[in-house]
Design brief:
By secondary structure, the chain is of the alpha+beta class. Helix content is 32%, strand content 35%. The chain is built from 3 helices and 8 strands, in the order ααββββαββββ. A hairpin with a 3-residue loop joins strand 1 and strand 2.
Length: 176
């Protein structure tokens, strides 16, 4: 007897293939979410501790934002306000427990002025990737990450008020 299938009956091998593909997709998706979550947690690990450390050991009264700066050491940059409402920035070395190692400044951080200075110095063929508070020779500064006209990765450092360029360099793209 010839076995016939109706239009609505799916062979057993097709069901197994579909279920197997869905199981693999779910496993891959779960692994991807786990890796992303782990990487994000590692990036922001210690932010709360650095924020509390800066609030306890500086004139900061409130913390508005905590970011990360990778220089010679990893720093957590805590932006906030003092009791009188003036803006202030504390640079806490990741994992540091010595209050004397905190770099604290009340200098005005003018991102728009720094970006304007960078744009005029770099020219129209530069594409800005990122702007962040950082350090240059252990002094607070703006760090600009960009791509220049030759598609090289570049870094520029400007004073907090944005009026003076401290250094600028581009990395070779010989391996691209």
């Amino acid at each position: 007897m010839i076995r016939r299938y109706s239009r609505f009956t799916v062979p057993k091998w097709a069901k197994i293939s579909i279920i197997s593909a869905l199981a693999v997709l779910i496993i891959v998706l779960g692994c991807g979410i786990y890796v992303y979550s782990t990487a994000q947690n590692a990036r922001t690990e210690g932010f709360e501790a650095s924020e509390d450390f800066a609030l306890d050991n500086t004139d900061l009264e409130t913390a508005d934002e905590v970011t990360r700066f990778n220089g010679e050491h990893v720093y957590h940059v805590v932006k906030g306000k003092q009791a009188d409402g003036e803006d202030a920035i504390a640079y806490v070395k990741k994992g540091e427990k010595d209050p004397k190692q905190i770099i604290f400044t009340t200098d005005t951080a003018d991102e728009q002025q720094a970006e304007s200075s960078w744009q005029s110095a770099c020219g129209a063929d530069c594409e800005l990737d990122d702007v962040r508070l950082g350090l240059y020779d252990d002094a607070p500064a703006w760090e600009f990450t960009f791509r220049d006209g030759q598609d090289r990765l570049g870094y520029s450092y400007y004073t907090l008020d944005g009026t003076e360029q401290l250094e600028s360099y581009a990395l070779s793209n010989q391996y691209q």
